[in-house]
Amino acid sequence: MRFEQVDFDGLTAPLDRLDYIMEKHGLIRAEGWDYERVTYDRKFEIQSNTYYLRVQAFVIEGDVGAHKATLQLLTPLLGKHYYPHGVEYGEGETFPTHLVEQCKSLLLDIEGELGSLQQSKKDERV
Q1: Fewer CB in 10 Å around end: N or C, the chain?
Q2: pTM of the entire predicted model
């Protein structure tokens, strides 16, 4: 499931600030990165099912490995984990309504923090 209603496309942030904001909301980068992109995940276990909220970003400047990069975010995803095959994000998946609402709320909070970061960058240039 794609969270199209959350406007992450085009948002940019420095890696260290993005790590801080995401971790504050329970999304962890851990080993989900290479030199050109990062992935932040938050795991939800509901009854006997496991779901992942995923936010991906790619480098527009710098190097993730050196902890000096600026990243651009992509549309967030919600997927369901199927053992041993992995996470499915497809149109045929169904998600608990309360989980979708919780994820949307988290993403809107993150969007607000990133948006204020974008605004402060614009203010600095003026």
Answers
A1: C
A2: 0.87
